[in-house]
Specification:
This protein is α/β, with parallel strands linked by helices. Helix content is about 40%, strand content about 15%. It folds into 3 domains: about 80 residues, no CATH class; about 210 residues, Rossmann fold, CATH 3.40.50; about 30 residues. The chain has a 7-stranded mixed β-sheet with strand order 1-2-3-5-4-6-7, sandwiched between helices.
């Protein structure tokens, strides 16, 4: 298309939009149109995801059919709708197969070795991954610069501070996550509440609905550090409008040099995450409105009380005990004074 054609098309579209606007205020009309365009964007992306999910079952429309392919599939397969719409829900259980897994801070590769049996193909050739896992170095000093600020991994979020690259690691891994994938990264608790650049990144991730779960782990689990750490679970397409907080810091087996999570502790974390269960002092689904009221601070203690309730005092019972003690003291004093009097010694309570 030539520049003249583009200009002519632009003028034509502007004329159509102006005619549709009628007497409506231009600003109001813009808001309506942007909303419709965004809805169309979501609809197109949903169709693309459906085409990938359904594969050869994705309908091909006949000429003149004005329905969308997905609408046709819904009409033809009412019994399969629930299974299709819940295919990405953790409650449905494990995926039958992972096509790709990324650990961008793999070190010895132990995490990748633990998930290799789930793999169905070589992930090295894939640009995006079903699962991203990482245990990067905590609060690593790095050198952010102007070139990195334009990097696709960080451009929409900003750069992590020079003193702590925790969010740089997170955003790096998140960039390579598939739209329907899940990312889990182990980080220090500071990422949950630190301010400045980290607060801005955390806030955007929350507003975009990308932070799914925050899991607090016990201290002294790792050889490299004794501090308590957390696991952040992230998704690009998250359904619930809340964040699940799991406080697993008190559920572990204490060791001489290092603490460890017992199988039942791990099972409890997994089941709580999978079914998004709530339990007093352990797990809670916190709505985004409450997180916003807390200035997008994700400190676990803000949402799950870890305080042990004080035992109620029965004042009547305490008064009875004090009265009994006073009677016992008076009786003992009287008995001892009888002995002291025989010995010619000063009596108790006589001064």
């Amino acid at each position: 298309m030539t520049e003249i054609d583009q200009k002519q098309l632009g003028n034509t579209l502007w004329g159509i939009a102006d005619q549709l606007r009628g007497a409506m205020n231009a600003d109001d009309f813009r808001d309506y149109m942007l909303s419709f365009l965004f809805l169309r964007y979501l609809s197109d992306n949903y169709e693309m995801a459906a085409a990938k999910e359904l594969g050869p079952d994705y309908p091909r429309l006949e000429a003149g059919d004005r329905r969308t392919p997905l609408a046709l599939w819904y009409a033809q397969n009412p019994e399969d709708i629930d299974a299709f719409e819940t295919s990405q829900d953790p409650a449905t259980g494990k995926k039958k197969q992972l096509d790709s897994v990324l650990d961008f801070a793999c070190g010895s590769g132990s995490l990748l070795l633990n998930v290799r049996h789930r793999m169905g193909a070589d992930p090295a050739k894939a640009p995006q991954f079903d699962a991203v896992v990482a245990n990067p170095p905590f609060s690593y000093r790095w050198e952010p610069n102007s070139a990195l600020s334009e990097d696709m991994r960080f451009k929409n979020y900003g750069l992590a501070p020079k003193s702590a690259a925790d969010f740089a690691f997170l955003l790096h891994g998140f960039h390579f996550l598939k739209p329907e994938g899940v990312m889990a990264i182990i980080l220090p608790h500071g990422v949950l509440f630190r301010g400045g650049a980290e607060e801005r990144i955390r806030t955007k991730l929350l507003k975009d609905g990308n932070i799914d779960t925050v899991i607090g782990l016990p201290a002294n689990l790792f050889f490299s550090t004794g501090i308590p750490v957390c696991i952040l679970v992230l998704k690009k397409c998250k359904k619930p409008d809340d964040v699940l907080f799991i406080n697993a810091a008190e559920h572990f087996e204490k060791g001489k040099r290092q603490n460890r999570l017992r199988p039942e502790d791990i099972d409890k974390i997994i089941e709580t995450y999978q079914f998004r269960r709530e339990e007093e002092r352990y797990a809670r689904r916190v709505p985004m409105t409450e997180i916003a009221d807390n200035d997008y601070n994700l400190n676990i203690s803000r949402y799950i009380s870890t305080a042990t309730p004080e035992e109620e005092i029965d004042l009547q019972a305490v008064h009875q005990q004090l009265t009994t003690l006073e009677d016992q003291i008076a009786e003992a004093t009287q008995r001892n004074n009888a002995f002291l009097q025989e010995l010619g010694l000063p009596l108790l309570g006589s001064h």
